[in-house]
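Hello again, I could really use a second opinion on something today. I've been puzzling over a protein and I'd love to understand its fold better. I'm sending you its amino acid sequence along with the backbone structure tokens. It would help a lot if you went through both lines with me. I've dropped the whole record in just underneath, so have a look.
***
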Amino acid sequence: MKNLFLVFTLLITSVTFCQETYTMKSGGRIFNSKEERLNSTQVAENFNQEALKLYKAGRTKKTVGNILFWGGLSTVIIKHLNVVNKHSDDQYAKTNNTLYFVGGAMVLTSIPIKIGFQNRIRKSVAIMNEYNSKTDEVSIESTDLMVNANGIGISLTF
């Protein structure tokens, strides 16, 4: 009987404290409750389908935003260097400015995309934390110390 009580008590305490909470930090990085960074495969293993779908959508938005931002910035820089090297002698030479506008448009388009990715990842973390708090919650309504002629015991009411 004592062994059964010990196993039951240890099981309840382990279930009560096994909740895993996740936090998102800058750049869409996800950390668990032990402050260990999770890579994308660990996120896929730990998140449910709804949260994982939002997480993947956020990562895709981040990738597209980075491609647009750095692609647009490099287009403007390369065009400018090309114009400077080509026309260093003649200051008033006429050049085609189309690539300046394309690069600028790419950079301006990337800004709202890069802002939106954090909202999706933050929402997926919130969904997962809410899911964990619902599934792992064990509430002990009361605990009583019982003493009678047979001995001492603890009463747990769920």
Observations:
- The first strand starts at residue 23 and ends at 25.
